[in-house]
Design brief:
The chain contains 13 helices and two strands, in the order αααααααααααααββ. The chain has helices spanning 7-39, 42-45, 61-64, 70-81, 85-88, 93-107, 117-122, 127-157, 163-194, 206-225, 227-232, 237-258, 269-314, and strands spanning 318-321, 336-339. Strands 1-2 form a two-stranded antiparallel sheet. Helix 9 crosses helix 10 and helix 9 (163-194) packs antiparallel against helix 13 (269-314). The longest helix has 46 residues, at 269-314.
């Protein structure tokens, strides 16, 4: 049984919890950031004379790399939520986490932040900005709380949840995602050269980096979620591979079409399709063949370990002392009982 007071065990559990928080937070941050920034036209909102001195513009380098910095922010979120992780896994755990975010982190924030009571009282930011900022924070924190609740409550409902298996799947999912980032970058280079696009017209902006980050996080979630399923039954590939095709064909093409980027061209479907097919093949190699071998090896190791422990318990001699302090032996008084695998009868002394 694990000793939860051990620093090594504590750090391992915290690291696993942090990985969950970082992935969920970054995903919801990017998805709802993209949605609301286009829905409420944040670009024009940030051009306000007061706001422009308060918020960085969309062209700022820090704004562009903002999605990639969210895992750093997630460290502090994980530190705050880790002590109540057992509460998170309860029936209303999602509601507790969400109320903490909304009540303490937003409305009653201890600093004069947008959409907070202190911000409305002590800053000169227009009330319109406070109102526009609140729906994104409201829904993003709700989505984060619900997904984290599901991620925490499922392992508690499973009898055989392995921390080591979790880390192996996360590691392989990240490796798989790196292939996706590489192939997506190659697609962009192919499209730029084929359409003879100007590099400055095709430069990365906040929107492009955000949707690429979304693709990466979705790849991690799908590859992790279906790893055990495709290992046990190859028919799950009939669902997994179409999802991969959607991520690497429909998602980028749809984004470029909706927001009318320089990559909005039907010819772009050719590199997208090739990338998606390669990702499907790589998925089969990593999670069907390689992960399957690791799983089988780990399973055999556990079986050998259990068998050794079973034999050890079977050969043990158990001694039960009934009256160890009494040196006198009287008739009918049982002092020591020895039980062995060969003889289960009781000897009276």
């Amino acid at each position: 049984m694990e000793n939860y007071n051990s620093p090594k065990i504590f750090l391992r559990h915290f690291f696993i919890f942090y990985i969950k928080v970082a992935v969920i937070h970054t995903l919801t941050y990017i998805v709802f950031g993209l949605l609301f920034s286009n829905l409420f036209d944040y670009t024009s909102v940030y051009d306000d004379p007061i706001i422009i001195n308060f918020m960085r513009g969309f062209e700022s380098p820090l704004t562009v790399i903002g999605p990639f910095l969210q895992p750093i922010r997630a460290i502090f979120i994980a530190i705050a939520l880790f002590p109540i992780r057992r509460i998170i896994a309860s029936k209303l755990g999602w509601l507790i986490v969400w109320l903490i975010f909304i009540c303490i982190g937003v409305i009653a924030a201890p600093i004069s932040a947008p959409s907070s009571i202190e911000g409305i009282i002590y800053t000169q930011i227009p009330i319109k900005f406070h109102i526009i900022s609140f729906p994104e924070v409201f829904i993003q924190t709700l989505a984060f709380s619900l997904i984290l609740w599901v991620a925490e409550i499922i392992p508690h409902s499973e009898k055989e949840f392995s921390n080591r298996e979790f880390l192996v799947k996360i590691f392989l999912s990240v490796i798989y995602t790196m292939f996706g980032i590489f192939l997506t970058s190659v697609c962009g280079i192919i499209i730029m050269n084929f359409l003879e696009l100007n590099y400055h017209d095709a430069k990365l902006d906040r929107g492009t980096i955000s949707y690429l980050s979304t693709i990466s996080i979705l790849t991690i979630i799908i590859s992790y979620s279906f790893a055990n399923k495709v290992y046990k039954n190859k028919l799950w590939l009939l669902l997994t591979i179409p999802l991969i095709l959607i991520i690497y064909i429909v998602f980028p093409y749809g984004y470029n079409y909706i927001f009318d980027t320089v990559y909005n061209n039907n010819m772009a479907l050719i590199p997208y399709s090739l990338s998606a097919v390669l990702m499907a093949i790589i998925y089969c190699l990593i999670f069907v063949l390689f992960y399957g071998k690791l799983k089988n090896r780990h399973k055999k190791t556990e079986e050998v370990y259990r068998e050794d422990n079973s034999n050890k318990d079977h050969n043990e001699v158990k001694v039960i002392e009934i009256n160890p302090d009494d040196d006198r032996t009287e008739e009918g008084d049982i002092k020591v009982i020895e039980l062995t695998p060969e003889n289960d009868d009781s000897d009276k002394k």
